[in-house]
Amino acid sequence: MNDTLTIVGNIASDPSHIITQNGVSILNFRVASNHRRFDQKSNAWVETEPNWYNVSAFRRLADNGKLSLARGDSVIVTGRLRVREWENNGKRGTSVDLEADSIGPDLRWGTVRYARTSKNGQSASSDDSSADDSGVSDQWAAPLGENESFGDDSPSSGFDRELVGVGANHDRGAEDSGPF
Fold it and tell me: What's the predicted TM-score (pTM) here?
């Protein structure tokens, strides 16, 4: 089955990164995708039960994900869906797996600055002296802003970690010579 699915949710486990004997980089984590709806009878937001997905990323996506993702991050993941039955020690269940083609932050809950990497994990700009040991450039990075209160539209997962990158208070002035 080659069903393509896009999910929006929160990373619910610490991402696990391994490199196989053949040199293939793999990143695994779980995503909880819960939905909220407004209940007019109670005049309040009601949360539904979350859907749980096992997400796997490979090669460059895994390497970049290792540097970028953490438990609690709000993400959007697109990939190929696989539903499988399992049995272990007399217990049976169903696993919903997603082999990620693309992973990105959900910008409703925070801000980030994109830093392109080359194939070897280094900053794509060869003259960028601001790349740290992780290979990610901080050329556009600015201090994180104060946590914002999102009111009723906040993620319902209980996580309050800010996304890595530029905070909400960053004001791009005319003197900014960035590419955007």
Answer: 0.63
